[in-house]
Every structure is written in structure tokens, then in C-alpha cells.
Fold this sequence. Notes:
The chain has 2 domains: 1-57; 59-102, no CATH class. It has 3 helices and no strands. It has helices at 3-48, 53-57, 92-95.
Amino acid sequence: MSQIALTSSRHRRRKIMDKAMTVVAYLCALAAIVPLALVLIYVAVKGLGAWSPQFFTGLPQLNTGYFVDGSHAEYAKANARYVVRVPEGVNALEAAPLNCAG
């Protein structure tokens, strides 16, 4: 086989391999971009409804443990709108689950 034929054969094989790997690279990029786009669309559709002027301009809720000292302390500061009185006669073990929202 002549040197020119051998070089031509290698060149042709390299071109085919280059095209194949380019297609593989595009498919991999597509496989990464499509799920990302679907997630962004889902978040946009579901999340935009939750935004309102109040979200951007209102003051945050002063729930205990988030913006003020929490309820797992000897003394706690809490807004009266978010607390209830534990009835007389209820011991600490029975009242403890009331401290947990979940």
C-alpha cells in the first residue's frame, strides 16, 4: 500500500471519528441542558405565583426561633400572637410536644 493511500485512509477515519465525537458531545450537552430547562420552567411556573408586592415590601414574620430567640431556652422572647398558655397541671413532658411544629 502506498504512503498516500495510507495517509488518505487515516485522514478519512479521523474525519469520521471527529464527526461522531462531535455528535456525542452535542448529545451530552443536550442531555444536560434539557433537564435544567425543565427545572427552571417548573420553578418559574410554580414559584412566580408566590411572589407578590408583600413578599418584597412586607416585614418578615417574627416567629420564635427565626428572627428572635427561640423557644428552646430557659427564657424566650416571643410575640404574643405566636404563643399559647400551657394549662395548669400539665407537666413539662406532656407539654414538650407542643414546642414542635412537626
